[in-house]
Predict the structure.
Amino acid sequence: MPAPHERSTSPTLLVIEDDDTIGRHLDTGLRAHGYATTWCRTGIGGLAAARASAPDVVLLDLGLPDSDGIDIARELRSRQPDLLLVILTARTDEIDVIAGLDAGADDYLVKPFALSVLLARLRAHLRRLPSGHDGHDGHEAALRVGDLVVDTQARTCRLGDVEVSLRPKEFDLLAVLAEHAGTALSREDLMARVWDENWFGPTKTLDVTLASLRHRLAQAAVQAVPPTEPPSISTLRGFGYRLEACGE
Ligand code: CA
């Protein structure tokens, strides 16, 4: 059965944001960068627009006048499992971010944020959409993030022209982070994927392995010819980690 929405070459994007200034800024900026963008000011309007057009991406403000953004997130996710859902929040409370991610969001941005940061996150996410909006097709064993190449079949890691030697858990951790580049991964999720799916104990070993991984990547970056930058692995306090290509 054909999808109700025919995918064009440019990703379709729905912005649900009640703030006029931010909404207009996003609408204009995203259009200028090739995203077919629709802007709604209410949660109810946003749900209706999503139902009508099945967008590839929704940017959802959590503080909406007519509804709780978390409820809207949950509804969008249940209706459209393959949606890329990014929540926008002015709230600095980590609880809101966690609630949003639990409700099905793939990523979040805390306002105010630069359009360039949003665009970089969207590029990182859209690279991994199964249908691909960037010309990639088929399966690739090698994960690429900037100058970093992680080959999960050969279990090799390269940064620029340097082969990076990693311990098994460092490799596994990097592979998971690189596979989900641009996405926030919780500590629990990382522990379960890299160590043990039934892990309930302390997660100190994650921090130790991550620190060592950062160190090895930084060393490799300096040795590379020409010198390069390692991908940045951000610490999300109280939540987990996120890997991004440097400069994105
Ligand atoms: Ca708002």
Summary: The chain has two domains: 12-126, 142-244. Residues 151 and 228 are 19 Å apart (CA to CA). Residues 1-8, 131-139 have pLDDT under 50 and may be disordered.
